[in-house]
Design a protein that fits this description.
Length: about 425
């Protein structure tokens, strides 16, 4: 009943038959380990790779995501990138949408019970998940599944039999459960079902490798345990680090407003990537770029030898923007950024018509949505962050007569206004 022992990421040089690794297996192992936090057990993964190469049978690689929100940000794509790298090696990737497990609610890392989503919310969110994931994965080579396929038919009898395969004592070793129990914070019985059901997904899919964030390690190990219980060869697990956001400190999160949404418009995406620190840039290269590590190391050496780090950052910004938009959009975003940095006006900006001339600048900013209120507009003027036709406005009492003006707030907010 005990979970498998955690193996380290130490390097192994022997294959399934005890002989030396082939170049293909060594390359596949290198790709697997790139940027990962843990690969457990690595010896088992090497054996699986060697067997797959010898038989020509691709390995089954699983990633499960619960559709808890309608959109994903580039922090979520760290594991998707790893899936794509393994997909490009010829293995079968399975994008699993947790429409059933979302009804339970993942307790990972929580200090209270996570409210389960309604079936309507899950359906609405799931509709966008795969479409967005396909911007990273090759959809023609991706198997998409929903865990309601096998979870619903399991029924009450099957659920009881599944629950008998793990003990409460082992479940309580999980950090979030242990901490909540010690603090007297309620733990609902249904929360114990989440790791069991996620682990059962691996049984249903006969997965060879499951990917997840570092916060998912307990659930991933559960898959190994249950596969053994059901007489299957246990999967290996690969955890990827949680990506730091734009601030370089906290993990990327919408709630912390340090994220880049993969559906954000190209100019914003490009500019946000350029805003990260030179140090964080290299970590993003490792986790987000499709360049080889040899290419990244060569670029890093060039910067260390005097090349402007901004050149490398622009390359990263263009690669990420191209992935989620197009090469043309990335080129246009780069030019837009150059124009803005020189105080220029982008080619395409929102247009509005407002009546009430003459009108104070702060009131006009509010009218076109560049400020939440007249008071905020005045504060922006006081801070020197407002321009009218490229000239900084310093007088809060300035009123504009009838005419057409280009308003600018900060570096990235513009509006072309016709005031009548």
């Amino acid at each position: 009943m005990n979970p498998p022992q955690n193996d380290s990421k130490s390097t192994h040089n022997t294959g399934v038959d005890g002989g030396a690794l082939t170049d293909g297996v060594r390359r596949a192992l290198e790709v697997t380990l790139r940027g990962c936090e843990e690969l457990l057990p690595q010896t088992d993964w090497v054996q699986k790779l060697s067997r797959a190469e010898a038989s020509g049978q691709p390995l089954r690689i699983k990633l499960g995501l619960d559709p808890t929100a309608p959109d994903i940000h580039i922090g979520h794509t760290v594991v998707l990138n790893k899936m794509r790298q393994l997909q490009d090696l010829g293995h079968q990737v399975i994008f699993l949408i947790g429409d059933f497990t979302s009804l339970i609610g993942d307790p990972s890392g929580r200090n209270n019970t996570r409210p389960p989503l309604t079936s309507e919310q899950i359906k609405a969110n799931a509709e966008t998940y795969y479409k967005q994931a396909s911007l990273v994965l090759d959809p023609s080579k991706t198997e998409i599944r929903y865990n309601s396929e096998w979870s619903l038919p399991l029924g009450s009898m099957g659920m009881i039999q599944l629950a008998a395969k793990y003990t409460v004592a082992r479940m309580m070793e999980r950090n979030d459960f242990h901490d909540r129990f010690k603090a007297g914070t309620p733990i609902s019985v249904h929360e114990f079902l989440y790791p069991l059901m996620q682990g059962y997904d691996s049984v249903a899919l006969k997965s060879d490798l499951e990917l997840g964030g570092t916060d998912q390690k307990f659930n991933l190990l559960m898959g190994r345990h249950l596969q053994t219980e059901y007489g299957q060869e246990p999967q290996c697990i690969l955890t990827m680090p949680l990506l730091e956001g734009l601030d370089g400190v906290e993990k990327m999160s919408k709630s912390k407003n340090n994220y880049i949404g993969i559906t954000e418009e190209a100019n914003t995406m490009f500019a946000k990537v350029l805003s990260i620190s030179d140090t964080l840039m290299w970590r993003w290269y490792t986790l987000l770029s499709f360049k080889s590590m040899a290419e990244i190391e060569a670029l890093k050496r060039e910067v260390e030898e005097g090349r402007n780090p901004k050149d490398a950052k622009v390359m990263l910004a263009k690669e990420i923007t191209t992935r989620f938009h197009s090469a043309a959009a990335a080129d246009a975003a780069e030019q837009d950024f150059i124009n803005r940095s020189k105080g220029g006006v982008p080619d395409q900006i929102p247009e509005a018509q407002v009546s009430g001339a003459p009108m104070g600048v702060a009131a006009l900013l509010k009218a076109v949505g560049l400020a939440a209120s007249t008071g905020e507009g005045n504060r922006l003027i006081e801070g020197g962050g407002v321009r009218v036709d490229s000239s900084v406005v310093s007088d809060k009492g300035l009123k504009l007569g009838a005419g057409t003006y280009v308003l600018q707030v900060g570096k990235r907010k513009f509006a072309k206004v016709t005031l009548a």
